[in-house]
Structure formats: structure tokens, C-alpha cells
Design a protein that fits this description.
The complex is a heterodimer of chains A (446) and B (416). Chain A is built from 22 helices and eight strands. Chain A is mostly helical and 446 residues long. Chain A has three domains: 136 residues, Orthogonal Bundle (Fumarate Reductase Iron-sulfur Protein, Chain B, domain 2); 160 residues, 3-Layer(aba) Sandwich (Rossmann fold); 125 residues, Rossmann fold, CATH 3.40.50. In chain A, α2 packs antiparallel against α8 and α6 packs across α8. The radius of gyration of chain A is 22 Å and the shape is globular. Classes of the chains: A mainly alpha (446), B mainly beta (416). At the A-B interface, α1, α9, α10 and α14 of A face β7, β11, β15, α2 and β31 of B.
């Protein structure tokens, strides 16, 4: 009965092999262990309070993009997953766990837009996280997401970057940068620096130019900064999204302790969203820290500071109009919408707001670990985010040619959306524009 | 405990400018000061893509393509990594090891030995004083050197693995390697190997499934799995292995797989033994509050964050860096705080008689040294780690003001 409407199963080795190993007894035991030991009153209140008013539905890009199919609504996803686990007290079969996993891992980005639309303040994202936690403890996780979690556990970064490869990448970028800035350094293990700069795994692996750009900006601004030569440099956290909270805690511990070891006054994080949530909201708290143990600043805030204090000046502004994509975890999660607009207004000639925007913005559909679920679920993201394509197309029709998105996952998701829906837009990080157009007093003349 | 015998403890101060290197360099990097304060070293860029080590103002004769991660060890040896002709070498006090590597990192030293993690031909292992492990591995991390500097250990990947082979990984491709030999079962993960005080045994964290963690000693796992463990430590008196373990969402302490501190802490880590066998650790008795705990008895004061623990030589006192809920740093000691809060504090240091404690503090733009909660009456651009004389009566202050290096031997009574 419970999976009657679930007609969109996607084949995934991780999910299938996972459920092949399950027994009803193991499912029941695990589900009830999580409910009794980890969720407490919070889950029960959220679940029991929902009156199925449906106001959350139009908040979800999956619902909107699937022509208002109620099975994609936040409340609908709850009723297809955790409601049944609660009602049946875990007495469900392996096929149902597959359904739960697919919905929670690939049809919800944990973007929490729905929370803004719930008159009762129910956090459906939290409930989907509980489903993921149960699936993790049952060993039913999408293959590629699990692979990134394994990478985290073995290397303390999400891209299987080995210890030597990390430092080698930094030295390579430093060497490249010295053609432009002859005395530029990426200071390694500098004790007592004002800023510890951390990035996510894909930067040394695929997007090394972002490290170059960050180095150039920090150098030009005269910031006293450092990067670590040892693990802890990766602030990202796919274990948080796979439901492996123990590994999430281990990752955040090494990240913060890396900065503590170097006595850095603050961590400045690159342009990533989910990692920000992991360090200031979830990983730190799992470890018992109410606050973060080292000051944490997102790039948006940091760039705003550099521009406000005149440490970075723009030689020319990027030709507009551009539009702004507000990443869920730093906007809804952290409230940096005004700082983001300040930075964009300082570095671009003009911008046109995407509609809806700021805390009401639609997610990129890549966050929440969904893009890390890999190729099997790419179409889930494409079909599930027609809403984003419509937003982008509307901006393009007003003359926008460039989208600014200060988040790695958003870049991955938006690149796919732009290509899939043939929108013909360029995508930029803030750092791309600042680096390219700032006054470079310390560079050699061309 | 730093051995400060034989250092110059003549009261007074010495100022030096070490300007020679500057004249022959495009830039100088950060200063590093030897424990006894007699040597000041930094990396000098002498020309594009040319670097030399500068010690007390004198440029080294050899020029390298790169020099990274210089530091003085507790014995006062200056070590760094240097690159030449696409190979990396270990530099120790002006000499480089004969053998070069594809890459080298994570310098360690103990007992007069220097060790490093090494990648050679995309295989991973360790080298001690220039001697490489006989076996290298697919990957390696969590490198460890024994207290006497004679033995090494690391987490190593024994089996190759293809892209996204999640079940092969879960079956176990990692192991503990000791002196280059993989020991024990293949597991998902190995973390934080640590040697016994006599360097004969090694314990580590192991992760045997997605959800099961335990401790392995010399390759043999404890019989119980936990849903979390942190780094183990050896009791120097009994030889027992003690590790924090997570049970039912709370942390306790297990010794040889028997619970000795009940799991009641929100957090418990960084346990360490005194010479007498007492256990100090950092704990969180309630969510968001951290403090120090001795033998399962937490202090009554707490802070938002506590780390960088120092235990006095007699084992009776402890001090740590605490970050308050106001995000300012304080010294937590003897179940209270020193007066004042700071932008940053470095690990406190005890005197040999355990009576005095010193710490380097940062006020924002200036730094100074505090002893027993009282500041030295002078501030500097930068301070380095303080040290006490063997009789505990004097404090060595090493500092920088601009380009001037200052070495001061002050009496404890001068801190007011």
C-alpha cells in the first residue's frame, strides 16, 4: 500500500545492494533505535503538528517542476517516508527503504525553502535528514554519495586527494601566480595568521584556478593568511548528507583543530554553501560545541569586508546586467543576502533580481548531496528543477547573460540546468569577477 | 617537558637585527626561533624561484627551488623540506638527506631522529633519518613516530581500489603499517596510531564497518565495537590502553575494552596520563560547556571551547586554552581562569617545579608573555613560546619588534 504511488524508481547499485542485504528484523531494530535514541521530541512534534494544509507544496522546486504532483511536495515526501516508518514502528520491507532513500537523498535538497512557507514552522528538511540517517544506518545509500563519504573517511577530503597532492596543488598555484604577482605566496602552516583559508575538495582536484584567484585576492588585500599543509583543509562534508554523523563529527573536528593548531583567528571559507552549514550548524554541534570553536566567515562576508575597507578596489566593474543566485545554506541558513547584494553591486555594473529571490530563492537542485548521488540521478535534478530554469530564463529575457552563484554545488547544478534547458548563460563565482577586475597594485604590468 | 639545562639563563636582554639576509633577498618569510632562543631562522627568496635558509642573518650557501614548512624541533634542530630538480629533500641544520622523493611532508622528530611522510613513484610510506620503508603503499596518512624516534606507523591503503568501488572499500582496503609492514586485519579506516612510552607497542582507532569503531593494539582489535572512538593513549605505569568511546550518544573512557569512566559526557577527548598514571582529558559535562577532567572528576569552571592542554610535571596541575562564549580566549588553570581575555592564546607552559605557568597571548596588534596570570610589562609585535629555567625562577622571552629580535631572560617576579 505504502509504495503505491512510487513509480519512479531509479536503479542505483548502492541502494539496490543495500536493500538486498536487509531483513525486516534489521530494519525494525535500526529504525526504532534511531527514533528512540536520536530524534526525541523534535521529530514527534514536527510529525504530529503537520495538518497537511499543503502550503509547503509550492515552496518545493520538485513539486513545481513536476506540474504540482503532490508526491513531490514536502508533506507528500514525509507521508511517503517517515510517517510510515513512525506509524508502522519500523515494520516495513526492504523495497520501502529503497523508496525512502531515493526520496530523501535525491528528491529533497534539504534546501529548507518549505520551512518558510509552513505556518507551523515544521522543518521538513530535518525530517528528510532523519530518513537519510536511518538509511545510512541500514547501509542503503546512493553509490556515488557513499563514495564521497568514504573518501572523507580515508583522506579527510571528499575527492580522494592524497596528502601530497594537496600541498603540491598549492605550490603549483603559487608558482603559476608568481608570473603575475612575483612575490605572491600561499603561506603554508603560518602560525598565528589572521585568516585560515579553507576550501572544498574539488578545488585542488578540478578547480585549482579558484585557489589561484583566492591567493591573488588575499595577497592584493594584504591579508595575513595561511593554508594548512595537512588534512583539515577541506571544509566540505558529504557525510553530513549521507547521514553518517559520526564521520561528520570527525571531519569537523579535524577542520577546526587544524585552524586551532595554527592559532588562526578566523577561518575564511571559499564560496561553498553546504560546508558552511556543516561547520556552523551541524558538525560543530554534533561534537558538543554550541558555537563554532574558531570564528568562521563565508567568502561573501569576507569579500564585503575587503571592499568596504578599501583593501580591494575594482579597476572596472563587470558589465551587466548579471543576476544573483542565492545559495540555500548561506542565505536561508545564514542570512547573507544583503552582503551578497552589496558585493555584487560593488563589482558589477548592474544586476537584475531573479524572481523569487533572497531567502525565497529556488534551490539549484544540486545541494543537499543530490549532485553527489551521481549520474544515475542527473535526470532527477534536471526534471526536478524546471522551476530554476524558468527563473533563469526570465532573467535572461531581461538581458542577463551572467549568473553569479557563490557556491560550488550551485555551480555544478546550475551548469547542468543551463545546458539541459539551453539557456545560454555564463556562470561566475564572486572570486572570478573580483580577481579579473580588481586593481592589481602588486602585479607585474602586462 | 622541555629540557632547558645548558641554555643561557643570564638575566637581561639581547637585541639583534639580522639584516644581512635582507640585503641579499627579495623577501623573507616568517621567523622561526629555536627553543633556547639562540637561533632565528626564516626562508629567504634570493631571486625568482631561488630560496635559501637564513639563520641569524646569514644566508645558507645552498640555494633551492623551494623551501617549505621550516621549524625547530625540541632538540633545536632546524628542519624543512627543500625542492631541487623536481625532487623533495629533507633539510636538517644545513644538510639535506641524500635521497630525494616525489614529495615529502609531515615532519616529525623524537629522540634525536627526524622522520617524514614520503611519496615515491606514487607509492606512500615513511622515512627516518633518510632511510625509507622497505614497503610503500597505495596511499598513506596518519603518520606517527615513536617516543624514542626509532619506529614509525601509519594508516596505509594495502589494496588498490577503482572508482566508486564502495563495497570493496567497506570490505577493507586499509591497514595499520608499523615500520613499513602492514599488520592486523584490513579495515575501512585506521586513525591516530600512537606508540607506547617504551616504543614497543602501537595502538590505533579502527573503523570496521560504516557504523562500528574500535581500538586495535599491535594489530589486534578490542572485542567490542562502539559507535565512535577517539585516539587511544598508553598508561605509562600499567601499559594499558585507554580511549574515549561513544555509547548511546555519550562519551566515556575505556581501558583495555573495559569502561572505566561511564559514558556521561557530551564530549571527551585528548586524554593523557601523568607519570603517576592519573588521567587528564578535555570533556564536555553538558552541551556547549567544556572543561578539564582529572580521573573522571571535571572541574567546575567551563568555557565554550577548551584545547591545548598542558599538564604540570608533577601531574597535579593542568592548564589549557579556553574560548569563552564571548569568543575571547582565556587561560583555564587550576579550576579557574587567569584575569583578562585575549584575541589568541598559545598552549601554556609549566615550570619544572610545577609552581609556575607561562603563556603567550595576543591582544590584537601586540603580544606578550604572561606568567601566573600576570603580564610582562612590555608588548611586542610577536612573541614565541616561552620557557622556564631549570630552577623555575626565570622565564625566557623570545620576541620580535619589527625587524628586531629580542631575547630576554626575566625573573618570575618581574611579571606583575
Amino acid at each position: 500500500m505504502y509504495n503505491k504511488i512510487f513509480d519512479r524508481k531509479v536503479d542505483d547499485i548502492g541502494l539496490q545492494t543495500g536493500i538486498d542485504r536487509l531483513t525486516p528484523e534489521k530494519i525494525e531494530k535500526t529504525v526504532n533505535e534511531v527514533f528512540s535514541g536520536e530524534t526525541g521530541a523534535k521529530l514527534k512534534v514536527y510529525h504530529d503538528t503537520c495538518v497537511r494544509c499543503g502550503l509547503c507544496a509550492s515552496a518545493c522546486h520538485y513539486y513545481v517542476s513536476h506540474d504540482n504532483d503532490p508526491s513531490y511536495s514536502p508533506a507528500g515526501k514525509v507521508t511517503q517516508t517517515i510517517s510510515i516508518l513512525l506509524d508502522k514502528k519500523g515494520k516495513v520491507g526492504p523495497d520501502f527503504i529503497y523508496q525512502c532513500a531515493q526520496i530523501a537523498y535525491t528528491e529533497c535538497n534539504l534546501c529548507r525553502r518549505c520551512v518558510h512557507y509552513c505556518p507551523l514552522g515544521i522543518d521538513t528538511g530535518y525530517m528528510m535528514s532523519v530518513v537519510r540517517r536511518i538509511c545510512h544506518k541500514l547501509g542503503v545509500t546512493p553509490q556515488y554519495l557513499q563514495d564521497t563519504a568514504h573518501s572523507h573517511s580515508a583522506t579527510m577530503n571528499q575527492m580522494w586527494v592524497k596528502d601530497d597532492e594537496w600541498t603540491d596543488s598549492l605550490l603549483w598555484q603559487e608558482e603559476e601566480a608568481r608570473d603575475e604577482f612575483p612575490d605572491m605566496r600561499i603561506p603554508l602552516d603560518k602560525d598565528g595568521a589572521d585568516v585560515y583559508y579553507s576550501v572544498i575538495g574539488p578545488e585542488p582536484k578540478f578547480r585549482t584556478h579558484l585557489i589561484y584567484q583566492a591567493g591573488a585576492i588575499l595577497h592584493e588585500a594584504g591579508v595575513n593568511w595561511t593554508m594548512p599543509s595537512m588534512p583539515g583543509w577541506d571544509n566540505s562534508d558529504m557525510a553530513m548528507y549521507s547521514g553518517d554523523f559520526e564521520m561528520m563529527g570527525r571531519l569537523k573536528r579535524i577542520h577546526f583543530e587544524s585552524a586551532q593548531k595554527l592559532h588562526s583567528k578566523k577561518i575564511v571559507m571559499g564560496e561553498c554553501g553546504h560546508a558552511f552549514r556543516s561547520v556552523y550548524d551541524q558538525g560543530n554541534r554534533w561534537l558538543g560545541w554550541k558555537d563554532y570553536p574558531v570564528e568562521v566567515v563565508h567568502s561573501i562576508e569576507f569579500f564585503a569586508h575587503l571592499l568596504k575597507t578599501g583593501k580591494i578596489k575594482m579597476a572596472e566593474k563587470f558589465p551587466g546586467p548579471v543576476t544573483i543566485h542565492d545559495p540555500c545554506n548561506v542565505i536561508r541558513g545564514r542570512g547573507l543576502m544583503n552582503e551578497l547584494r552589496y558585493v555584487v553591486s560593488e563589482i558589477c555594473e548592474s544586476y537584475i533580481e531573479m524572481q523569487p529571490n533572497a531567502e525565497h530563492n529556488f534551490c539549484c537542485a544540486a545541494g543537499g548531496g543530490v549532485i553527489n548521488c551521481g549520474p544515475p540521478f542527473k535526470n532527477v535534478r534536471m526534471d526536478g528543477n524546471r522551476a530554476k530554469a524558468d527563473q533563469l530564463r526570465a532573467a535572461a529575457e531581461q538581458g542577463v547573460k551572467t549568473v553569479i552563484a557563490p557556491c560550488h554545488n550551485c555551480h555544478g547544478g546550475l551548469e547542468d540546468i543551463i545546458e539541459h534547458y539551453e539557456l545560454g548563460l555564463d556562470l561566475k563565482f564572486l572570486g572570478d569577477i573580483i580577481y579579473a577586475n580588481m586593481v592589481k597594485t602588486k602585479a607585474v604590468e602586462e | 617537558m622541555q629540557n632547558t639545562n645548558g641554555w643561557n639563563w643570564e638575566p637581561g636582554r639581547r637585541k639583534e637585527t639580522f639584516s644581512d639576509c635582507e640585503q641579499g633577498s627579495e623577501w623573507l618569510e616568517e621567523w622561526h626561533v629555536s627553543p633556547d632562543g639562540e637561533k632565528v631562522a626564516c626562508v629567504a627568496c634570493t631571486a625568482p624561484a631561488e630560496f635559501a635558509m637564513c639563520v641569524n642573518g646569514k644566508l645558507g650557501e645552498t640555494v633551492y627551488e623551494k623551501i617549505i614548512c621550516p621549524r625547530f624541533d625540541q632538540d633545536g634542530k632546524l628542519a624543512a623540506y627543500v625542492s631541487q630538480d623536481m625532487e623533495w629533500f629533507v633539510y636538517v641544520d644545513g644538510e639535506t638527506w641524500e635521497e630525494g622523493y616525489g614529495f615529502a611532508w609531515d615532519l616529525k622528530s623524537a629522540g634525536g631522529h627526524v622522520a617524514t611522510a614520503v611519496q615515491q613513484d606514487m607509492r606512500y610510506g615513511m622515512a627516518v633519518d633518510g632511510k625509507l620503508w622497505d614497503n610503500l603503499f597505495e596511499n598513506g596518512n596518519n603518520f606517527c613516530l615513536s617516543p624514542d624516534g626509532s619506529r614509525t606507523a601509519a594508516a596505509v591503503q594495502v589494496e588498490p581500489m577503482g572508482q566508486a568501488e564502495i563495497y570493496k572499500f567497506q570490505d577493507g582496503v586499509f591497514s595499520l603499517a608499523v615500520d613499513g609492514e602492514a599488520i592486523g586485519d584490513l579495515v575501512m579506516n585506521v586513525y591516530n596510531p600512537t606508540f607506547s612510552p617504551d616504543s614497543k607497542s602501537v595502538a590505533c582507532e579502527v573503523r570496521t564497518s560504516l557504523y562500528e569503531y574500535s581500538i586495535a593494539v599491535d594489530g589486534k582489535k578490542w572485542g567490542t565495537s562502539y559507535n565512535g572512538v577517539w585516539a587511544p593513549a598508553f598508561n605509562p605505569v600499567s601499559g594499558a590502553v585507554v580511549a574515549p568511546v561513544r555509547i548511546g550518544g555519550k562519551w566515556g573512557l575505556a581501558e583495555n575494552n573495559n569502561i572505566i569512566w561511564q559514558p556521561k559526557y557530551t564530549q571527551l577527548w585528548k586524554q593523557r596520563f601523568t607519570a603517576q598514571g592519573d588521567i587528564w582529558a578535555v570533556c564536555s559535562p553538558s552541551y556547549g560547556e567544556f572543561t578539564l577532567v582529572k580521573n573522571d572528576a571535571p572541574w567546575s569552571v567551563s568555557a565554550a571551547v577548551v584545547y591545548d592542554v598542558a599538564v604540570s610535571p608533577d601531574g597535579q596541575r593542568a592548564a589549557a586554552v579556553a574560548r569563552g562564549h564571548d569568543r575571547r580566549y582565556k587561560v583555564m588553570i587550576d579550576n579557574k581562569f587567569w584575569p583578562g581575555s585575549f584575541e589568541m592564546i598559545w598552549r601554556p607552559v609549566f615550570s619544572a617545579d610545577s609552581a609556575n605557568c607561562a603563556a603567550r597571548v595576543d591582544m590584537g596588534s601586540k603580544q606578550t608573555i604572561m606568567v601566573n596570570g600576570k603580564a610582562f610589562g612590555e608588548e611586542f609585535d610577536q612573541c614565541f613560546e616561552p620557557a622556564f629555567s631549570p630552577d623555575s625562577s626565570k622565564v625566557l622571552i623570545k620576541a620580535r619588534n619589527g625587524k628586531e629580535y629580542i631575547r630576554i631572560v626575566a625573573d618570575v617576579s618581574e611579571f606583575k
